Amino acid sequence: MLVNSSGTRVITNEGPDGPFDRIYQKGSLEKYELVNADQTTYTGKIHRRTIIRVDLKGNNFRYPCFETEDGRWFDRSGMPMPKPTKIENEEENKEEQVQGTNNL
Q1: Domain extents in the chain
Q2: d(Cα 91, Cα 12) in Å, to the nearest integer?
């Protein structure tokens, strides 16, 4: 999320196909905010997850992403993504965010 010189928030969740949901970082590395396509702010929980991806050489690597309480998924840049098939161990992967504030 950007702020222009007059202090007004500039939301950049509009693409060629129209507006979309997007997660933004709020100041620190531990605070996040989800702005819905209709410009409202999501008030549910946002879980930080780690999924397993495969690189071009066939090696597995860990990839951070986000899951909302209502089942939407976002990549590490805050863009919507399909639900992944390989999620790391749930118990080790339980970092939660509530309304953009750290809840650990």
Answers
A1: 2-102
A2: 34
Q: Which amino acid is at 6?
A: S
pLDDT of residue 65: 92
pLDDT digits (tens, 9 = 90+) for 48-87: 898 888 899 999 888 899 999 999 999 988 899 999 887 7
Residue 91 in tokens: 């118990």
- What is the model's pTM? 0.68
32: amino acid identity, one letter: Y
Residue identified by tokens 């509009």 is: 14
The answer to whether the CB of 15 falls within 8 A of the CB of 22 is no
Q: SS3 of 19, please? A: strand
